[in-house]
User: Fold Methylamine methyltransferase corrinoid protein reductive activase from Blautia hydrogenotrophica.
Amino acid sequence: MRGITKKIHLTLPIPTEEDCVSDQERIQRALKKQGVDAVLPLPILRKLYPFCTEENWDFTISLAYDGGQWTAVNLEPQDTTACHYGYAADLGSTTLVIRLLNCNTGEILGEASVYNHQIQFGEDILTRIFHAKDQPEHLEQIRRATVDTFLEVFAQLENMTGISCSECISMVVAGNTTMVHFLLGIDAFCVFSSPYAVHTLNPGFLCARELGFPLLGYVYCYPGKANYLGGDIISGAIATRIYEKKELSLFFDIGTNGELIIGNREFLLCGAGAAGPALEGGSVKTGMRAVPGAVERVELKDGHFHLLTIGQKPPQGICGSGIVDMLAQLFLNGWISIQGKFLPEKSPLIHLEEEEYCVTYAPGLNFYQSDIDEFLKTKAAAVTMIYYMLELTGLPADEIGHFYMAGAFGAHISKESAVTIGMYPDVEREKLVPVGNSSLTGAQMLLLDRSILEYLDRIIETMEYVQFGAVDNFIHLMTAATAIPHTNLEQYPSVVDEMKRRGLLR
Amino acid sequence: MRGITKKIHLTLPIPTEEDCVSDQERIQRALKKQGVDAVLPLPILRKLYPFCTEENWDFTISLAYDGGQWTAVNLEPQDTTACHYGYAADLGSTTLVIRLLNCNTGEILGEASVYNHQIQFGEDILTRIFHAKDQPEHLEQIRRATVDTFLEVFAQLENMTGISCSECISMVVAGNTTMVHFLLGIDAFCVFSSPYAVHTLNPGFLCARELGFPLLGYVYCYPGKANYLGGDIISGAIATRIYEKKELSLFFDIGTNGELIIGNREFLLCGAGAAGPALEGGSVKTGMRAVPGAVERVELKDGHFHLLTIGQKPPQGICGSGIVDMLAQLFLNGWISIQGKFLPEKSPLIHLEEEEYCVTYAPGLNFYQSDIDEFLKTKAAAVTMIYYMLELTGLPADEIGHFYMAGAFGAHISKESAVTIGMYPDVEREKLVPVGNSSLTGAQMLLLDRSILEYLDRIIETMEYVQFGAVDNFIHLMTAATAIPHTNLEQYPSVVDEMKRRGLLR
Assistant:
């Protein structure tokens, strides 16, 4: 492991009159022999005596890298190199997920998550931003809530593993630009307001204690590219290593916002745009989070719904992956048109309720026309980003070597359904790769491999950021993408085949 | 000035949607254009908003160098580059002297000094060391006293100049190894006890606030070579630049201890040894510090003393420079022998008092045989270091290009008298250069010229440290050096000439 922390066991010769270099130098020379130039800061200098004498010069030194140099952050008696821990964190606006890692082996010792305590100041991020705007006390509340969120997860991890945060050296955090501002205690109004020049995108390595964390070393925040393209996405790009591949790759992280990066080792384009809450089930009337009782798989066969719920509980609503299946199945069975409109003559399950068509997919649970419309708008926004970016590269969709879909949504939806509704490009299915929480993966990778730092800034610098809002024909492109799978059917040959097979197309 | 601090006035374009890099990057890019890669730490990141907006992006950034990188430490509205201040300090065990400098011009804006507050824990350094030894509360008392000493001088300088320490960026401190340990709050027993492996010799740049100083940036402590050859001497070597001269130079700092460095740009030898308090008038019965009323010049002519006192006050005692004159004059007038023994037949002023010969040099003031003996022992110790070191170089005394004498003592004694008693080598007088408080000068130089850091560690590393205590024939050499000017008269041709002229030698 060539991570951002080290633990080195030293057994040094006891000073004699013939060998009487200073304690500091004795240690620094020994470290240098192991290839490490390290600074011994004041707290460590103060600890040298009587520690070294008492421990008979047999101890373990913990070192933290700050991007420029190694700093000694702890001395422990004897050999404790086996206890070498660090954190990787994905600081989302909804959830904070942290992994505790064995920094010698890379083994994940524990993973825990909690809702972001910032939620008390607003469910959505904008409310929080306005709460803190130009009100230092409110900003401090939010900063404190952010820190407390971390402390809660640290405590959970300690319960799980017996390893406390004061035994951990450093932490890598991947978060969007707003989250990083709040973590640092900086006003984040800049993120959402013109001219979108935020206060910091690359705070680098910060002393953990200065941030309020009782870790020994540093907290590194993944740098961001722009206000809407933060360290969480850069971390995802690192996780998928799209910047080093010869083939064209597309990395897509979609939630309330969609962020994507397309490119290869030659170039990288990136962009971000609003997607809306539909993908997370947020604007669907019977939508719900992916918790037990949520419909996650939908099959429509011989006029009947076959549902799979999380935890095999009776259906209480439908989550994102269920919605994608639902749309695909309604479409492939001809119950909705290419424009996503219900065709009520196709099934008695389709009926009017309060002047709106809907289909009853489970007892008491309806899927409405407005749900479809809302979702397709979101899908269109997301897909348009993809096609627009592809167009900028001048390359056709079938040049895509890998399509990486980040997030829980990408991990759970059916590839077939997503292609059917035109949410994923119609490429060979093995090219469609759900990557899960790639922000967390990228954070973990950097914790364990500091060589990423050598090219990270350069990658971000060479990235070209596309402002979708500034794109003239974006609305036009979006309208075309609202159709299922897309107005331009040629881009979806496998869907066309399936439509033909089912007699929906001749 | 290429010092360890910078102030840079920035007038930056106000962010627009077309130019919306982060505030942090906007500043870092502007600094980079001026050739500075700078880190913006958390307190500065937190200050960016609303500061930059409110100041319309017209402000001055203060930067401090930490040996590896530049760190932003302050933001001030508009152009304050003219107010660019720093401190150079000579932390002696008796006195702390600090200069306040204009870091743009190098101008000395003020200089002040106070007695080291550590004195309350012991007049001499060993008492203080024992007070603190293995007693953390006592060590903390001494550390606190050290910091308070600085704060008192800062306050004096503020009274003199109106410039407070919170307006100063960084400080360079030259102090001996014990003083640096105490400043950092580290037990210093190691300095005086076998195996003489001290805890730190090169603490480097320390955060001023961590040390207890309200400065903006760092405190740099001059690195030392060994327990008895501390940063104060290294600073003096830097001040005299003996390490870059082709000619052989000798740097000598004598007080209670004598430290010396001999060499040129090819090699450097250094050593230290106890000298005793005699040179500062400490063991002379009527000895006193160089304050008004102290005899500082002595001439003996036609059997009478002609005295000069500091402040033209009636004589109350004799200080170091007076003692050297006294010995030279007694010797050149034949009142004492080459062994420094009174020849009572030479003057009625020489008489017995309590079974000891002495000479009355002013009403009620006697100079005793034991005073002479004590002083000559000290002189012998000092001179022997010089000859021993010279011998090690294999070069004769007349190869010495410059003999630099540091300290108040060196600044005030008569060169002729010092050569006469064999305290200085008998070289051309212009080669004998008193350099005053060279520790302070070296500290000031480094504050104003960080390029010294590029070679400082290397110089110290190439220095060879000679343990006088470990030298076999040191006592033998010392005995030879007790004579006036020296047993080996050949080394003192000008003294021999004068002795012949006066009929003391044929």
Summary: Chain B touches chain A through 45 residues (CB under 8 Å). Chain B has a mean pLDDT of 93. Chain B has three domains: 5-77, 85-221, 241-506. Residues 85-221 of chain B form a domain with the Nucleotidyltransferase; domain 5 fold (CATH 3.30.420.480).
